């Protein structure tokens, strides 16, 4: 096998390494779900994977397309509803780890996944909170994953609370599970931890081939660097094989995946069905 890997593959595998056996882990669709599936099949076979919509102990067969996609699972231990997922599991402190994506993030791990720009006159609407605010408030640990997000000095909108203004401000508010909050942020350049005292984000690990100065260019504040800065362990051939079998599109990229999808569709569609699709596509292009 070719041991070259994409940044998306690295991001998934590094995120999966945060998952431990015999823990309760809440996943979202996309990168977190793929990290969970990887861990379940590789090093944490007894992890209890959960989805916001109420899938408990699910076993991914193929990538889930939404938070209640039972058709993509080999099976699950049981299903509950979204309300019970929060009141019975999350608010009582039964979630050991959750993964959250990032739109904007500040130095204390506060998140914006709502809007870019002014709320009433925004430049771009983001997916919103969903369960992110609840999970970041009441999960014992939270890992932030950032692919196309942005580091900012000040959020355009506070969607989910990290360490607020730093230091002990989160604990003093008495609104969150004691000891909770973001523990790591993982992006395509490195891994960031949060200082135990100040709660400020700092660079703890850089990915192979990445320079510290490249990372600093993305950060609008004076980023602190760990004294014992390490380099991320590259994916093994076995890790890459597993992730590529589960979801080849991660490795191929969106353009190649789309072309292959179209090619396969053309192979299986009857001639009339294919002509109908092509005519509809052509009409769309001319409108």
Relative strand content? 15-25%
Tell me roughly what share of residues is in helical segments: 25-40%
Reading the helices and strands in chain order gives HEHEEEEEHEEEEEHEEHEEEHEHHHH
What's the CATH class of the largest domain, please? Alpha Beta
Q: What is the annotated CATH architecture of the largest domain?
A: 3-Layer(aba) Sandwich
Class computed from helices, strands and strand pairing: alpha/beta
So, the CATH homologous superfamily of the largest domain?
A: Glutaconate Coenzyme A-transferase
Q: Strand count, sense and closure of the main sheet?
A: 8 strands, mixed
Briefly note the CATH topology name of the largest domain.
Answer: Glutaconate Coenzyme A-transferase
Shape: globular
How confident overall, as mean pLDDT? 91
SSE order and pairing:
Blueprint: H1 7-16, E1 24-27, H2 31-42, E2 48-51, E3 55-56, E4 59-60, E5 73-75, E6 78-79, H3 82-90, E7 97-101, E8 104-105, E9 111-112, E10 115-118, E11 121-125, H4 132-138, E12 141-146, E13 150-151, H5 169-173, E14 182-187, E15 190-194, E16 201-206, H6 212-216, E17 224-231, H7 237-246, H8 248-252, H9 254-268, H10 271-286
Parallel strand pairs: 1-2, 1-7, 7-12, 8-13, 12-14, 16-17
Antiparallel strand pairs: 3-6, 4-5, 8-9, 10-11, 14-15, 15-16
Task: Give a description of the structure.
The protein is of the alpha/beta class. The protein has 2 domains: 7-252, Glutaconate Coenzyme A-transferase, CATH 3.40.1080; 253-287. Helices cover 33% and strands 24% of the residues. A hairpin with a 6-residue loop joins strand 15 and strand 16 (201-206). The radius of gyration is 20 Å and the shape is globular. It starts with 6 loop residues before the first helix and ends with a helix. 36% of the residues are buried. The mean pLDDT is 91.
